Amino acid sequence: MTLLDVRNLTVTYPGGAAAVRGVDLRLDAGQKLGIAGESGCGKSTLALALLRLLPAGTKVTGEILLDGEDVLTMRWGRVRAVRWAGASIVFQGAMHSLNPVHRVGDQIAEPILLHRKETPAGARRRTGELLEHVGLPAARVSAYPHELSGGQRQRVMIAMALACDPALIIADEPTTALDVMIQAQILRLIEQLVDEQDVGLMMISHDLSVLADLCDRLAVMYAGRVVEEGPARAVHEDARHPYAAALSAAFPRIGDPASRFAPRGLAGDPPDPAAVPSGCAFHPRCPVAVEGCDTVDIGLREAAPGRLAACVHVPAGNSADARSTP
Amino acid sequence: MTADAVSAPAGQADGPAPAAAPPVRGPRARTWAGYLRYGAGKVGGAAVSLFAVLVTSFFLFRLIPGDPVKTMTGGRPVSAEQLAALRREFGLDLPLWQQFTDYCGKALTGDLGTSYQFRAPVTEKIADALPNTLLLTGTAFVLYTALGIVIGTRSAWRQGRLGDRLNTGLALTLYSLPSFWLGLLLIIVFSVGMGPVPGLFPTGGMESGGEQGFAHVLDVAHHLVLPVLTLVAVEYGQTLLVTRSALLDETGSDYLTTARAKGLRDDAVRRRHAVPNALLPTVTLIFVNLGRTVAGVILVETVFSWPGLGGLFYQALSVPDLPLVQGLFLFFASAVIVMNTVADLVYPLLDPRVGR
């Protein structure tokens, strides 16, 4: 069953920056979808757009079907009801995403009281259970965020995301601010919780290897577009789009001596969303760009069964659509 | 600071901690110890400030030109012996350092000396005028604080909209007016009457005299309107601007996005999440203003002939009535220092990040 179906989503900030430019994504219930890309590629904007959390004045078009219902055309009362109860977000950097002057227990209980019409005693009980579920002692409900370590705060954030049993959890770089050991713990925790509760997970990260390890499918974003999409492992190990390949090579593969000496990394900066290059947005940084890449905007093509990539080097046999810039 | 003490057990508890992890009592107890240490530091600092005020109040007013003994005799012909006798009576013939130690010793026992012009204990004069001042400034304080916070939070939440621009502009304009000028203007328009506006309010004083019971209360309230209006108009802008800018600093915060993502209504996000975080600067200002309420408002009390501390200070300065001036100065400054200290002690209760 399709849980989330994003169709041709575009997001333009006031001032003209096109952060998301026509993204299609699908996520089935209980599935794990990874979104990868550099800072500024539009992946966090995408996460906020799903629950209409972008600042007023931002232009959002397309469709976001959550359980078949379009979030973008909902009335505000319905949007508020869907927020957290239908889909919740694990934000990056839980230090700033938790309110510093409220006890963590109250912050976890807040959506329970709001959406579930629980009694305060019931909400308190559930909050304690949630904390123990994410590996924290229930007594920690009375702690303030600054009294917790980074890993503990992220656990609180995860407990909070689970509070109303949402069908979809969006995790926006949940481990970015953590050290490697804690990062691994948190990833295992997310994986375990998602598997046992059968929720859909949309995991956003710049770390392709983490996503390949955790997710079923993987979408790589560049300059507000999905440039490659397919089964997570396949995309990581055998990327068809040169950008996805560069991103994949940026993280050394353990146990593969060849990758340690292979040239990796990518020169240049991601494009300014206010001035996206013409044609294929990646062509100024692309090592295999050919004539025409700067004018023709290649759409996603079928690169292999179940795999899509938006590159001229992918044989155009079963091309989905090839759009050219006017 | 017990920050490390608090986070140390927290760090250990990371990972799938055993459910029996006992760090709960530890940090809590240490937190209270931390609060006491923090409080003792603040109170100690206040004591140092108070002593500095004591010293300043003694020497500062001795720099005022004029001979109190000559003013007291009112220019009547007096012999040198009589002047010397007066000096002796008030201890003005002693060396300065001895006057100072006498003054400090007495001040510590609550004796602020005897007023030259009223021939009455300074503490008694202050106690007589204090209720009148508190009635005026207290009423104004409650009104301008409430007005400033309410309009300030709404302005910040709708930053840049017409309402915000009008409110901020009006508050700034009123804030920059001299209070005595505004007071005089109000007297001319609403007391004396101007054009179609009849003289609605008394020009000054606190009561007409003669009324009893409820009529007396109404009469005082009637006298209170214009001076309170003056004070509120001049003062609410400061609270508004401080509240507004503090809240603006919070509006981009990530935890507000979290609160919205949870499905809270916009006003709940503001009241429950943004305002409590933005309140600290406003609380500081509230307590400073609370300290200033006892200091009275010299200009407004003088313009409206209000029988309070401000008017008393004005009278004392013109003599100069040194014990009264010193006493009032010490009293005003102490009130501000004490209220600041109270604010410092209240912070940790409002914001758990402070002082631990």
From TrEMBL, chain A:
Keyword DNA damage belongs to the record: no
Q: Does the keyword Kinase apply?
A: no
Q: Show the InterPro entries listed in the entry.
A: AAA+_ATPase, ABC_Ni/Peptide_Import, ABC_transporter-like_ATP-bd, ABC_transporter-like_CS, Oligopep_ABC_C, P-loop_NTPase
Bilayer topology reads: Peripheral membrane protein
Q: Which GO terms fall under biological process for this protein?
A: peptide transport
* Compartments where located: Cell membrane
The source's superkingdom equals Bacteria
Alphabetically sorted, this entry's keywords are: ATP-binding, Cell membrane, Membrane, Nucleotide-binding, Transport
Entries under PROSITE patterns matching the protein: ABC_TRANSPORTER_1, ABC_TRANSPORTER_2
Describe the location of the ABC transporter domain by residue ranges.
4-248
The cellular component terms of Gene Ontology attached to this UniProt record, alphabetical and capped at eight, are:
plasma membrane
**Per the database entry, which stretches of residues form a coiled coil?**
none
GO function terms (MF aspect):
ATP binding; ATP hydrolysis activity
Q: Name one Pfam family in it.
A: oligo_HPY
For this chain, the family text in UniProt reads: Belongs to the ABC transporter superfamily.
Record's protein name = Dipeptide/oligopeptide/nickel ABC transporter ATP-binding protein
Naturally occurring in which organism (per UniProt)? Streptomyces poonensis
Lineage of the organism: Bacteria, Bacillati, Actinomycetota, Actinomycetes, Kitasatosporales
From TrEMBL, chain B:
Provide a GO biological process annotation: transmembrane transport
Instruction: Cite the SUPFAM superfamilies for this sequence.
Output: MetI-like
Comp. bias intervals (Low complexity):
8-18
Gene3D superfamilies annotated for this entry? Answer: MetI-like
Task: Tell where it localizes.
Answer: Cell membrane
InterPro entries per UniProt: BPD_transp_1_N, MetI-like, MetI-like_sf
Report the protein name in the record: ABC transporter permease
> Which taxonomic lineage does the organism of this UniProt entry have?
Bacteria, Bacillati, Actinomycetota, Actinomycetes, Kitasatosporales
